[in-house]
Amino acid sequence: LKMTWLWFYLPLHLLMAACLCHSIKAPTTSSQQSFKTDLFNFHHSLILADGKETTIHLLKDIPKRYYFVLEESRALAPFSITVTPCDVPIEWSILVYKASPSFPGKATQGDHDTQEVSKSQKAPSMVSTIFNYKGNSVETYMGMSSHSALYLLEFLSTERDTHITVYLTTDTTSGHLYPELPMDPRIDVVGIGHTTVTLTWKHSPSALQHRDSIQYCLLVNEKHNYKSLCAAETAIRSSGMKVPPTLALSLSPYLLEPQQVMILSNSELSIINKVSSGEVRQVCMGTKNTYTVPNLSPSTQYYFDVFIVNLLTNASAAYTGTFARTLEEPEPKVTELKDGKVVHVVLDGKKQKFYSLQYQARHKKIQFTFQLCQGQIRVHITKNGKVVASENLSGLRYFSLKGKLLDTYLVQLRSTEESNSSVRVQASPHFHKPLFPLLPESLKIKSFSKLRTCRSVTIAWLGTQEESKYCVYKRRIEEDQIWRELQSADRCSGPESRHKSEKVLCKYFYDLNLQRAVTTETIKGLNAGTFYLFDVYLFGPSGIPVRYHSKVVKTRKKC
C-alpha cells in the first residue's frame, strides 16, 4: 500500500465521476445535488502528504478538504490518520470513494435501460463516511483498505479561526513520528508543599529506546490543562506573547522575548512566560520522570502537563494532565514585645513576608518606636484587629496611641525592596523615659566647600535644646565604593562597630535657641585629593546612639 499523486489516478477519478454522473437516468433533485457536491469536493481539495505532519489553518465556518489515494497492493493494508487541534474544538470526518467492482468502465452490449438501472442501484454504495469527530482532543483513526480507494478529509472550525496538525502514514511498521506514551499516561502528584509540588510519571518506551533524541517537558500554569503542545503554545501566544514553535526549540536563549525568563540549573532548563493570566512555566528535564516544581505561590491551584518531545522531528505526545493546590501559607510566627525591650528585626526582601510582633497594653497610653537601620520597610499596626497606623518608615519614627488596658496590638513589618532591611522596635508606656535621644530637625551633615583645603575639611550638624554627646568618626574611602557604602550603611550600628583609629573627637553641646543649635568642626591631618566618609553619632540618656546620615567629602588636590 502506498501513496500516489492524483494524476496517476485520473482514470479511477474519472471512472467514479462517470459512474456518478451517468448511472442515474432521471435522478431526484436531492440525489443530483448530493453527487454534484461530491464532485465539487474533489475538485476543491488538496493532496495530503504521506509520512509528514501537515499544519492546516482553518477559517471560521469555512470547511477545508484534503484527499489521498490508496492503491491496491495487498489485502487489508493498514493506514492511520492523527489530527491534533491546536486551539478550539473542531469537526472532522473521513469519506471514502470506492469504484464499483461490477462497473466495467464503459457501456456493454445489451438493453441500455437495464444497464442504467443496474448502475443506478450501484451508485449509492460508492460513497460512505467512515469516521467523524468533534472536539479538541488528539484523535487517531486506524483503517484498513482491501482495494484501491480515494479518501477525502474534511475539517471545520465553528468557533473561530484556528490551526491543526494532521499526520497520515501508510507505513505503520517502521516506527512512529510521535513519541510513544506508556500504557498508563497519567501524571501522579506525590508531594505537595506550600511552594512546591512533586510529580512523577511512567517512562515512555520512546525515552527508554532513544535517550539522546527524546526528552520530557513540563508545562505549569494557573488556568487549565492542555491536550497538546501546540494547544499550549497557542494559548500563550493568544495572551500577547510570541513563543517558539515548540518547547524543544524554545531551549535557545536567543529566542526569548522580553517577558520571558530563562533559568538553567542542574541540567534543567526553565522558561517562565509572564502573561496576563499568571506565569506559564516551561521546564525540560531530559529523560528524568520525577520533578519537583519550585517557587510556587501558597494556596494556589496549578495545572501540570507533561509532553514527551522528539528533538529530531519536533513531534510530541501529551500525558494526561493533572492539577494540585499548594498548601496554605502557615500563620507567621508572632514575637511578643515586652515593655521597654528593644527588638532588632531583619527582613528578607526576596520573600516579601510580614514579620509580626504582638504587644498587650498594661497602660492606656503607649508609644511604639521604630528606628530604620537598613533598606525600606512598611509598618502596619492594628489594635484589636482594627488598623491604627500604616506607613513606610524613614529614620526614627514614634507612634503614640491611646486605648484601654489589655488592648492587643499587632505590629507587622515588611521589606519594600528586594535587598534585606532591618529595624529596631520598642513598645513602652513610659513617655518620660525615651529610648532614643531628642532629635534635631535634620540628621544631615553639611560640608563647606570654600573651607576645604588639601589637609582639612570643615563639617557642621544640627543639635537640640538638650545637652547631648556627639562623636565624630572618619574613614578613607575609594570613589567606586561611595555609592555602595551609602546604600548599605547600617544606621543602627554604633561606634562600637568602628575601628579606634577612625575616631576624631567627642563633644557635648546644646542651645535653647534652636536657630543657633548648630556646631561645626574642622578635621585636620588629611591627605590631599582624597575621599573621606564622615559620621556623627548622637547619644541620649539611654546610651543608644542615633547615627546622622553619612557624608563624603574630598580634600583639594592643590592648595
UniProtKB/TrEMBL annotation:
Domain of life: Eukaryota
Cited InterPro entries: FN3_dom (IPR003961), FN3_sf (IPR036116), Ig-like_fold (IPR013783), NDNF (IPR019326), NDNF_C (IPR045805), NDNF_Fn(III)_1 (IPR055271), NDNF_N (IPR056225)
The name this protein goes by in its record: Protein NDNF
Protein's organism: Atrichornis clamosus
Entry's localization field: Secreted
GO terms of biological process kind: nervous system development
Signal peptide extent: 1-17
A GO CC term assigned to this protein in UniProt: extracellular region
SUPFAM superfamilies reported in the protein's UniProt record: Fibronectin type III (SSF49265)
Single GO MF descriptor: heparin binding
Alphabetical UniProt keywords: Glycoprotein, Neurogenesis, Repeat, Secreted, Signal
Gene3D superfamilies: Immunoglobulins (2.60.40.10)
Keyword Repeat: yes
Function: Secretory protein that plays a role in various cellular processes. Acts as a chemorepellent acting on gonadotropin-releasing hormone (GnRH) expressing neurons regulating their migration to the hypothalamus. Also promotes neuron migration, growth and survival as well as neurite outgrowth and is involved in the development of the olfactory system. May also act through the regulation of growth factors activity and downstream signaling. Also regulates extracellular matrix assembly and cell adhesiveness.
Gene designation: Ndnf_0
